[in-house]
Specification:
By secondary structure, the chain is mainly alpha-helical. The protein has one domain. The chain is built from three helices and no strands. Helix 1 runs antiparallel to helix 3. The radius of gyration is 24 Å and the shape is rod-shaped.
Length: 104
């Protein structure tokens, strides 16, 4: 059986959200190469407010990766309800009887 476009887009939205979250976590866990002067430890920007207000911890390649992942996910989010609406409309048109009485 052929998968519907709306089902594929729904899977892509969920996969895109998971992939973006995983990429963000991996970027945050490798974020701070400079140790914190107070503790001497390196902390990801999620836990260090000074770093999180400054975007120097993320490389241009990482930024483009996040931009592409988010853009693809947003396109799928917009396309999903449109595809579902078009499929529902096509199904309703195929099941409609024009002539005759139904049930006889």
């Amino acid at each position: 059986m052929k998968k519907r476009l709306s089902s594929i887009l729904r899977s892509m939205v969920i996969g895109g959200l998971v992939a973006t979250g995983v990429a963000r976590v991996l970027i945050l866990l490798t974020a701070s190469p400079v140790p914190d002067p107070a503790s001497g430890r390196t902390e990801p920007s999620l836990f260090a407010p000074i770093i999180s207000s400054n975007w120097d911890y993320i490389t241009p390649v990482q930024a483009w990766l996040l931009i592409v992942l988010l853009a693809v996910t947003l396109v799928c989010v917009v396309g999903w309800p449109i595809a579902a609406w078009m499929e529902r409309r096509a199904d309703a048109g195929a099941n409609r009887r024009i002539f005759g009485r139904q049930g006889r």
